Amino acid sequence: MNQPLYRVLLVEDDIRLANLIVDFLKTHDMHVEVERRGDTVLTRLINYHPDIILLDIMLPGMDGLSLCEKLPDYFSGPILLMSALGSSEDQIKGLELGADDYVVKPVDPALLVARINNLLRRHSQPPKPSDSKSLTFGKLSIDPHTQMIRLGDRQVDLTSHEFELLWLLASQAGQVLSRQYIYHYLLNIDFDGRDRKIDVRISRLRKKLGDNLDTPFRIKTVWGQGYLFAPEAWNG
Questions:
Q1: Spatial strand order in the sheet of 135-137
Q2: Where in the chain is the domain with CATH 3.40.50.2300?
Q3: Positions modified as 4-aspartylphosphate (predicted)?
Q4: 107: which of 96, 100, 113, 137 is 20 to 30 A away, CA to CA?
Q5: What is the Cα–Cα distance from 176 to 13, expressed in whole angstroms?
Q6: CATH number of 129-229
Q7: In angstroms, rounded to a whole number, what is the distance separating the alpha carbons of residues 68 and 94?
Q8: Which segments of 27-156 does DSSP mark as H helices, in order?
Q9: At a CB cut-off of 8 Å and minimum separation 6, what does 94 contact?
Q10: Which residues contact 141 (CB under 8 A, 6 or more apart)?
Q11: 176-190 in b/e burial notation, b at 16+ Cβ within 10 A?
Q12: Under 8 Å between Cβ of 54 and 9
C-alpha cells in the first residue's frame, strides 16, 4: 500500500461535508486532517505540516478570509478557498487576500481533486538548475550551472545524484518534502516503504556537508513526513 502522496489540512465546520471530502481524498492517496474552527488553524500548523490547505470562508472563531491574510506568515503552500459565496466579488476578494484558487460549494469531488493536483504541481515544482541562479545559505553556496558546492572555504564534491537531491531540497528550503514526492521527482517511481535509495543519499549528503549524523540539524528528518532543508543552519 502506497504512502499518501500529499498532506491536506481541511478547514471546514460542516461535519458531513468534511467527512465526504476526507473519504474522497483518501481514495486519491491523500492524508487529510480536519480543523473545524478558524481560530485554531495556526496552532494546528505547529504539529501538522500540510502540502495544501482547503479553507472554508464561513467558520467559527475566525472567518476564512481573515485567516487567509495571516497564513502566509505560517504556511508557504497553496491555499484553496471553498465557499457557498460564489459572486465574482467574493472570489476576487479571496484571491486578493492570498488564496491561490477558489471553488464554489457544492463542488464536484473530481473537480476538487483536479484543482488540488494543479495547485500542488505549480507549487511543488522546484526551479530547474539550468534556469536558476546560485543559492546561498550562510556559508553554503550551490551553483546550479557548474554543480559546484562550497561550504565556507572548502569545495564539497558531490555525485550528480547527490547534487540533484541537494538542489531539490535547497530550492524548497524550509519545506518538508515527503519521500513519495522525492521519489516521484528524482526517480519517477512511487515510494514503496522499503526502498532506501534516497535515505542513503541523504546520509551521504549529511556527511559531506558537515551535518550531525545522530541529530541532523541541516537536513532534518521530520518523522512520518519526510525531509527538510533548514535554511538557517549554515552559518556555523
A1: 135-137, 140-143, 148-151, 154-156
A2: 6-124
A3: 56
A4: 96
A5: 27
A6: 1.10.10.10
A7: 8
A8: 41-44, 64-70, 88-96, 109-124
A9: 57, 64, 65, 68, 81, 83, 102
A10: 134, 135, 149, 150
A11: bbbbbbbbeeeeeee
A12: yes
d(CA 224, CA 49): 11
Structural domain 6-124, CATH architecture: 3-Layer(aba) Sandwich (3.40)
At 193, is the secondary structure helix, strand, or coil? coil
What's the pLDDT tens digit per position in 116-125? 988 887 776 6
- 127 prior amide bond cis, ω within 30: no
Residue 29: CB atoms within 10 A of its CB come to 14
Could you report the per-residue pLDDT of 65-116, keeping only the tens digit for each?
999 888 877 887 889 999 887 677 777 887 878 788 888 888 888 889 988 9
Q: State the pairing for strand pair 148-151/140-143.
A: antiparallel
Nearest-5° Cα angle at 228, 227 to 229: 130
Bridge partners for 221 per DSSP: 227
Domain with CATH 1.10.10.10 in the chain: 129-229
The region that residue 152 occupies, defined by phi over 0 for left and psi between -120 and 50 for alpha, beta otherwise, is left
